[in-house]
Every structure is written in structure tokens, then in C-alpha cells.
Amino acid sequence: MTGRTEPGRTRRRGAALEDAILDAAALELTESGFAGMTMDKVAARAGTNKNTLYRRWPHRLALGTAAYKRLATAAPVPDTGTLRGDALELLRQANRHWSSPLGTVLRELLAAAGGAAEFLSSLQEQSGEAAAAPWLTVLGRAVARGEAAPEALHPRVATVAVVLLRNEFVVRGVPSAPDDVLVEIVDEVYLPLVRSRGAASTAGPSAGTSPGSSAVTHRGSSAEASAGTSAARPPGSSPGAPAGPPAAGAPPRPSAP
Prior knowledge:
elongated
């Protein structure tokens, strides 16, 4: 009968309704991308109306961003046993994600966001641009193993490799980089930078030696040598006269006037 509610079925409200809408939007993103996702399609798929969507998300970009965050799950942090192996695997994960269908959605959303800081910051957290956590994790393990000094455990040092990879995407204009580029980033930039952070602290003066102590020691040694030479000269000899008795068979030295 029209207008009657089916037994056992309740009207969705609050979080349940929001979950249904986000699930529908996520499916639309997966199947059609952001370009093909419309508010009408999401509303129909969720079994609701557009007004319900607009009360929660003011426009398509806001809904698309929320749906993408639901799809983007964090990849497991690699644990290969070496910093080099972990860094390469993290870069390969980022490379695979950026060139995947979900990466295509991310690029569409970033392009649509333009200069909107609110959406850019939200998307960048998911894209890896500001996600330092896995890089700090692998670097922390390297410090614990003795592969890196504690001074290297800094967010800018930790994420320099993935920032260089994203720069590669921008410069090349393609959504992926060859594996030899990833190896080069790790071997030529990332690992040398990590190692240099500890080298600076070990290259200073030895423990217990203060600056200028070597100069003091040198001056003291010179003074001691000078004193020893003066003591070895016979009384009344000139400062330039040799010290000590003449060698055997040598003619006698003239006395000082």
C-alpha cells in the first residue's frame, strides 16, 4: 500500500545515512572517476535526494574529497631489515598508488581543488605529501639498528625522498617514474643525507679536548725545549754557541771574549 513503511525497515538518519551516501560516492568515484561523479548519481545510488547531500556537502568537490578519503587506506609500512630496502619500497608504493585508478581520482581532485587550501591540505594528507609517519617509522628502526644517527630523525630528512618523487611527476608530466629513478633518489640523495646528519657530530674535537688546547700544548713544548737547551749550555757561552762538550778529536772551541 502506498505510504506504508515496510516491516523491519527504518528510515536512515545521522551517521547511518552519511555512511550510505559516502559509500555510494566512493563507488561512483571508483567506476566513473571524479569527472563522472554527479550529485544526482550519488543520491540515486544512496536511495536519497540531492537536498540531503547538499545539507552535508556544499558542492561536488567536498563530497568527492570525503569519498576519496574513505577509499584511500594506508599501506603497510615495509620492514625489509635495511633502511635502503624500506625507503625503496615506500617509494614504490607511492609510485604504484599515483599511477593506479585511485591515483587518477586523486589527481582529478587536486586539479579541481585548484587553490582551495581547505581541500588541498586534506588531499595532501592522503596523497603522501605531508604523511611523514611511515618515513619516520622506517628511519626510527634504522636508528635502533645503528644504521643511522638519532640526528637524522627529522621530518624533513625523513620525507625528502617522496618529495623528490612527487617533483619527478610534476617535471616529467607523467603519473609514474622508472624504477631506476627511485633507486637514484635513495642511493644518491636520501641515504647520503641521512648519513651526513650523524657525521657532523662525530667530526668535531675529541672528547675532553677543548678548542685551542693543541696550541697551548705546542707553545708549552717549545718553551720546555728552549729551557732545556739553555740549561745544556756552559755558563758564559753565547746564545748561538753549540751546547755540550766538543766531539772527540775535534779542535777546541774558542772561549767567549
